């Protein structure tokens, strides 16, 4: 699959502005790299007070494929996850433990391409003859912009050098399920498609949060 850059460019401009802000800040700036979910992350953190840090990062898992069966239909699946995050960290205890809030700008979706062979399939309770030219494709897409809440460790303004960072949190938003099919030409009704869509929504479409669980290192200068 071809990756299309997220639009608009505002999140990336905001991340660049955060880096430039370090030039006039009395507090230390920090670059960091994390690994976990959603993928490999690279970012920049800037302390603005002794207890508050602003951060921005980019995370990606690229595209990953996996075949499987959902509601009796065999699919070739692809999961893609990329996101830009802008965060504010608050250190209530004065140590490296923090509470984090922010917003993420997401390009996260699951594509399920049907893999029909000659035979019959069940669509919303209706048995339908199919061939390898027929399709019933599903897209499960996470919202483009979502709030983020989490906890973590690290990014507190301290002396220059290496540090440990960790994050555990969620971007909050309900996934949208959409269907593309040519089976209406074979007698499948919209009611059948709606029932099948609801069954898929009750399965893979239950995604209401996008988790983050990551561990990494930082360098403060």
Question: Explain this structure to me?
Answer:
This protein is mainly beta and 221 residues long. The chain has one domain (10-220): Porin (Beta Barrel), CATH 2.40.160. The protein is 11% helix and 58% strand. It contains two helices and twelve strands, in the order H-E-E-E-E-E-E-E-E-E-E-E-H-E. It has helices at 10-21, 190-202; strands at residues 29-37, 39-47, 52-70, 73-90, 97-114, 119-123, 126-130, 136-141, 145-153, 161-172, 176-181, 209-220. The strands form two sheets. It has an eight-stranded antiparallel barrel with strand order 1-2-3-4-5-9-10-12. A hairpin with a 2-residue loop joins strand 6 (119-123) and strand 7 (126-130). The longest helix has 13 residues, at 190-202.
Give the rounded overall mean pLDDT: 86
**DSSP strand count:** 12
Work out the helix count. Answer: 2
CATH topology: Porin
Round the Cα radius of gyration to an integer and report it.
22 Å
The quaternary state of the protein chains shown equals single chain
Q: Helix coverage percent of residues?
A: 10-25%
Give the termini separation.
Answer: 39 Å
Count of all domains: 1
Q: How much beta, percentage-wise?
A: over 45%
């Amino acid at each position: 699959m071809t990756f299309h850059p997220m639009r608009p460019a505002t999140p990336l401009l905001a991340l660049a502005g955060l880096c430039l802000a370090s030039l006039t800040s009395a507090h230390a700036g920090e670059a960091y790299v994390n690994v976990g979910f959603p993928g490999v992350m690279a970012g920049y953190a800037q302390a603005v007070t002794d207890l508050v840090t602003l951060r921005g990062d980019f995370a990606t898992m690229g595209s990953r494929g996996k075949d499987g069966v959902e509601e009796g239909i065999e699919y070739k699946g692809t999961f893609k996850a990329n996101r830009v995050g802008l965060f504010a960290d608050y250190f209530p205890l004065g140590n490296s433990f923090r509470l984090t809030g922010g917003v993420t700008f997401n390009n996260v979706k699951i594509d399920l391409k049907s893999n029909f062979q000659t035979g019959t399939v069940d669509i919303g309770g209706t048995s339908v003859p199919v061939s390898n030219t027929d399709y019933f494709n599903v897209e499960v897409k996470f919202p483009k912009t979502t709030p983020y809440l989490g906890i973590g460790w690290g990014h507190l303004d301290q002396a220059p050098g290496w540090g440990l960072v960790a994050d555990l949190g969620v971007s909050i938003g309900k996934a949208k399920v959409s269907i593309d099919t040519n089976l209406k030409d074979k007698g499948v009704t919209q009611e059948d498609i709606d029932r099948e869509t609801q069954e898929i929504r009750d399965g893979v479409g239950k995604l209401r949060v996008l988790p983050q669980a990551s561990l990494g290192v930082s360098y403060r200068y």
